[in-house]
Amino acid sequence: MKAIFEKSILLDAILPALGSVSGKNTIPAIEGINLICSEDGVCVVTAYDLEKGYRTEITCDVVRAGNYIINAQKLCQIVRAMPSGFITLNIDSNNIAKIISGKSEFEIYAMNGADFPALPALNGDHGFVVKQSILRNMITKTQFAVAANDMRPELNGAFFKIEGNKLTVVSCDGSKMAIKEQITDIENKNDDQSELDMQFIIPAKTLTELMKLLNDSDDTVSIRLTRKYVILFIGKVVFFSRLIENEYIDYNRFLPKAPKTFVKIDCEAFLGALERASLVTEDKTMGQAKSILRCNFEDNMLKISSVSVSGKVYDEIFTEKQGDDIVIGFNCRYLLDALRACDSEKLKLSLTSQLMGMTLQPAEESEEGTFTFLVLPVKIKE
Fold first, then answer.
1. In CATH, which of 3.10.150.10, 1.25.40.10, 3.40.50.720, 2.40.30.10 is domain 255-375?
2. Fewer Cβ in 10 A, N or C end of the chain?
3. Exposure of 118 by Cβ count < 10 A (0-12 exposed, 13-18 middle, 19+ buried)?
4. pTM above 0.85, yes or no
5. What is the pLDDT of residues 5-18, one digit of tens each?
């Protein structure tokens, strides 16, 4: 195989593929990128770690067609290091790949493309189309609450529910929960044109890689589902992943039903106070555990305090409160995660008791829909 690529085009194609390459596997083929160059001047770039995969097409000058696998990390490092301009990739019958640009030349081993694992069928009989900016915002609002290595597999991903033109994304890790809902233009792509009514769970690692492919534009992403896979068509890129097949939790039952205290608070002021408090609460000194953040909602003031072996912190924030005064404890980092995902100027906090979680919602309605974050409390030691 011999092909000539423009460096920037080749690099833009193989860099996103790194997220779908296995780094810890006994199968050498899935540590590589599969390059299939055809005589019509097209190179298909594919990566697949048996859980998620990436495929795109780029144009090049194909002198000799072929199908080979090259180690992904080495290929990216070499292409990055090459001078700007054109890169020639020449793989001989002994599977020696020469990568040449100007006077620079590398030789590395390649593998026969026939050794690359077969991809799942990249089509589905039902799906939808939505703006990339909408999908990206939904994931941004909920990704912080996705569990990592939870014994309940369904919590190790984000739950997506599509009903007509309403899109809902939910995540929960046992300590905090995020629910993002938005009514938007969703194009129905069901083959039988039945009304959209879909539910699926996308793994956390897939969400991380998907965020690198999405942008904040009005460009669309087409999402198709099979029984085990989700396939996303983003421009010329096809990104796919195995789904988590467990049933998701009944998340609505965890939301407090009769809050007794409602607080309106400035999001930026609250975030700033938590970041200052984290200098004490997150400090592990002399083997001591992280300290509890004490939140005292009294009259129209939130009094934040914490004590650790390394020091103390105290702060006050003006609020607008309705209902009972309440003192409640939190893990500061969990609250910070939720606040950093907020984009509202004002927040509405709802509290019930010291033992029930606090919900955070936008104080005013927005065109970007609504979100509900739930952070569970920590028992305060008197």
1. 3.10.150.10
2. C
3. exposed
4. yes
5. 999 999 999 999 99
